[in-house]
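Hi V.,

Quick status before I head out on leave. The structure for the redesign project is tokenized and pasted below; the design run finished overnight.
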């Protein structure tokens, strides 16, 4: 057996213990945790959780739910947060653009839109980039009175109020 394989097996065992400890009260056995650690997304999420990796990139060959579920189970959600959001990064000639929550929250409330926006803005700041936020809907500056357009307008108003309190 090569050193790499020995190291991987050792890490798989450690990672399985971590996952089992987190999920045993939800019915996950240690044997199942070991089996999950053979899947690359679980193993990668455990590397991030233990500090052996800074990030995990997934989704090219897996569905979104199969990419995010391991991260949620292994890494979890930051204490104090009750919302998660998807974020895509698009690299353009003018620099990176961040698109929030096109995948996780279906029909969010106004408050959830505000929370998601602030969460993503905080994340963007971690990249040493000052967020510039555009709230998108199918309505241009009040041209439509549909429920979704009104929600986005209300969320934008709240964010403008919060920005005067220096949240960015």
């Amino acid at each position: 057996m090569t050193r790499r394989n020995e190291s991987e097996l050792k890490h798989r065992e450690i990672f399985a213990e971590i996952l089992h400890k987190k999920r045993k009260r939800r019915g996950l056995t240690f044997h199942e945790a070991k089996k999950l650690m053979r899947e690359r997304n679980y193993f990668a999420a455990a590397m991030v959780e233990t500090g052996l990796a800074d990030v995990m990139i997934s989704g090219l060959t897996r569905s979104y739910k199969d990419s995010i579920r391991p991260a949620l189970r292994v890494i979890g959600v930051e204490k104090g947060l009750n919302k998660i959001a998807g974020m895509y990064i698009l690299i353009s000639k003018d620099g990176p653009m961040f698109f929030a929550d096109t995948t996780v929250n279906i029909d969010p409330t106004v408050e959830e839109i505000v929370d998601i926006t602030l969460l993503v803005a905080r994340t963007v700041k971690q990249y040493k980039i000052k967020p510039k936020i555009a709230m998108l809907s199918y309505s241009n500056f009040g041209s439509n009175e549909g429920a979704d357009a009104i929600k986005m307008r209300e969320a934008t108003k709240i964010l403008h109020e919060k920005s005067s309190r220096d949240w960015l």
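Above is the designed sequence. The longest helix spans residues 3-23.

G. will cover questions while I'm gone.

Best,
W.
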